[in-house]
Amino acid sequence: MFFYTEASLAHETAVALRDLGGLQGAEQQFNRSVRTRRAQFVRTYSVTLGYMGAVQAQQGHLDTVCDT
Fold it and tell me: Which pLDDT does position 4 carry in this prediction?
């Protein structure tokens, strides 16, 4: 269970919010996951950035997507 951290919970929360249509909350939770993710989990970090970018795009925040 060492790998299930605050970042993992934030990621799973974001996925649930995204799937339920709560895009703003999903973006916040993906961002929280990225901020708290350990450096050793590079693939998961990258996947989370991709999901966050997709949520940002769905909200029409194209400049933010480019930054992400």
Answer: 82
Neighbours of 54 (CB within 10 A): 17
Please give the Cα distance from 67 to 1 (Å, whole number): 32
pTM for the full predicted model: 0.89
C-alpha 56/C-alpha 39 separation (Å) is: 23
- Contacts (Cβ under 8 Å, ≥6 apart) of 5: 36, 37, 38
| Token duo for residue 15 | 């996925």
Length of the chain equals 68
Low-confidence stretches of the chain (pLDDT < 50) are: none
pLDDT at 2: 66
